[in-house]
Each structure stands twice: as structure tokens, then as C-alpha cells.
Amino acid sequence: MENVHHLISIPLLVVYISILLGNGMLLFLIKDDHNLHEPMYYFLAMLAATDLGVTVTTMPTVLGVLWLNHREIGHGVCFSQAYFIHTLSIVESGVLLAMAYDRFIAIRNPLRYSTILTNGRIMKIGMGVLTRAGLSIMPIIIRLHWFPYCRSHILSHAFCLHQDVIKLACADITFNRLYPIVVVFAMVLLDFLIIFFSYILILKTVIGIASGEERAKALNTCVSHICCILVFYVTVVGLTFIHRFGKHVPRVVHITMSYIYFLFPPFMNPVIYSIKTKQIQSGIIRLFSLPHSRA
After folding, report:
1. Where's the G-protein coupled receptors family 1 profile domain (predicted)?
2. What total number of domains does the chain contain?
3. 176 occurs within a structural domain
């Protein structure tokens, strides 16, 4: 595939720049526009920051391989990259859960929405999501530092993933094989189930609203979040299925699924919210019309 590295790098660079601009714009709008200083948009800012973190962590080494043929990465840098990649993936799941909680309170208990989701509580939720993810991933990354590596030091991706690195270790890796499965079931799957059941309760509440216009308005506030949930969890399931059961699947499929997992949600989330959220649309219009109005 080396002869097409430069061709591959062009669409990846376009996607990379789009992710930086899209999520950066969301963060700027939410910070700059006082109309967006609400819990829903604070959680959206967390999602955008997480997406930026995942992309900035992975893409520089990918582009380094494709453009500069830079094929080496130090152990410490590799383990740090793996830590941030996996931590931010757990963070994204936690942020999506927090966003579901926001919609749950907004629709099931609207009169107490502002008193329940105060700025202090939102900050605590964000810190809790980050702490949970960071601590849960730390044990397997610490063990990577202890392992001897006597096999080939060739990774299957242009960035470091835990499941790639442990294949190179010459030690008992049973814990490192089983622990990630526990994390996925105890956190990512549990997050999804809580989100799923919260939306069942939300739907039950919406159906009970007498006014058709109010029902449509309530559902519309959830559409963007539901789309982001599907984008994230469908790619998680696809990547997990390929890694666990795709032993005979061509290597290029593994690599492609990894890129889809790390790039598709950060690329799509700003697009979804820009299309489906009127407040974000209004903010974008004001942002780009500002120079003309000054002129």
C-alpha cells in the first residue's frame, strides 16, 4: 500500500481539517454566544472537545507515516498515545450518557431543569466522566510498561492501540486480554443500555403530551443526540466485531474500520448538530455574517 500513501493522505487530511474546523467552531460558538450557555450546549462542548482530543491524538502519527515515511515511535510515546486514545473513547461514551441525562431531565422534569443541571453539577459530571475513563484505562497501560517485547515490533496501524501492542509482548497477557472486555461491558455497554432505557421513558412522556406541536418540538431536541449515539455505538460495535471475530478478514478491512471508528464520529457530530439544531445554525450565520455587517 506504500505506493498509494500520498493518495490516501489527501482524503484523510481533508477529514482531519474538517474535524478541527467543525469541532473548533462548535466550541467557539458555545463560548462566544450567551444564548448557548445552557446545559445541553455545555455537554455538546464536552463532546466536541473529546472528538478534537481523539483526532489530534491519532492523526499526526498517521500523516507522519503517509507523508514523511516516519515508521518509528518510542515506547513511552506509543503507550501514552494508546492511553489517550482509549481513555477518550470511554469519555465519549460517558458524555453521550450525560447528554441523554440532560434530555431526560429537560423532557421528564422541565420545571426543575435549571435547578438540577446547575453549572456546578455539570462540571462535576464532566470531571466524573473524565476520571472514570482515565482510571479505568490506566491498569492495562501501566502493564504495557512492564512487558518484555521480543517479537516483531511492527504495529498493524499507524497509531498505537492496546490490542496491537500486547500482541508483541512476550509475557502472560491474559489480564490485558480480559480486562478491556470487562471495561467495554461495564462502561460502554452499560452506558448504551442506560441511554436506551432513558429514551424509552422520554418517548413515553412525549406520547403523553397533548399538543402535536409540543410533541414534535420535544422530539426534535433529541434527534441530534440520537444521531450522534448511533454514529458512535455502531462504529464501536463494528470495530469490536472485526477485532474479536475477524481473524480471517483482510488486514485492510481492520485498518479501514479503525479509521472509520476514530474519524467518522468526530467528523459527523458537528455536521449533525449544525443541520439539526437551529441555535447552532443561527450562531454559524452570525459568525460568518459578522464581517459583512461590520463592512
Report:
1. 22-273
2. 1
3. no
Q: How many alpha carbons fall within 13 Å on the CB side of residue 93?
A: 27
- Identify whether 236 is part of a domain: yes
Task: Provide the residue range defining the domain that includes 264.
Answer: 2-135+181-294
**Based on C-alpha coordinates, what's the Rg of the chain?**
21
Q: What is the pLDDT of residues 38-92, one digit of tens each?
A: 999 999 999 999 999 999 999 988 888 888 777 788 888 899 999 999 999 999 9
Q: What proportion of the chain, given as a percentage, has pLDDT over 70? A: 94
Q: According to the model, what pLDDT value does residue 279 have?
A: 86
In a domain, 222, yes or no: yes
Dist. CA 186–CA 65, nearest whole Å: 35
HSE, side-chain direction, 13 A CA sphere, residue 52: 15
CATH number at residue 261: 1.20.1070.10
DSSP string for residues in 13-45: HHHHHHHHHHHHHHHHHHHH-GGG-SHHHHHHH
Asked if the structure places residue 91 within a domain, the reply is yes
DSSP H helices in 147-250: 162-165, 174-183, 190-207, 212-245
Evaluated on CA atoms 109, 111, 113, 118, the torsion sign reads negative
- 149: β partners: 169
pLDDT for position 125: 97
Task: Supply 213's cell numbers.
Answer: 406541536
Contact between 26 and 273 (Cβ < 8 Å): yes
Each residue's pLDDT tens digit, 188-231: 999 999 999 999 999 888 888 767 777 787 788 788 899 999 99
Helix axes 119-146, 39-68, angle to 10 degrees: 30
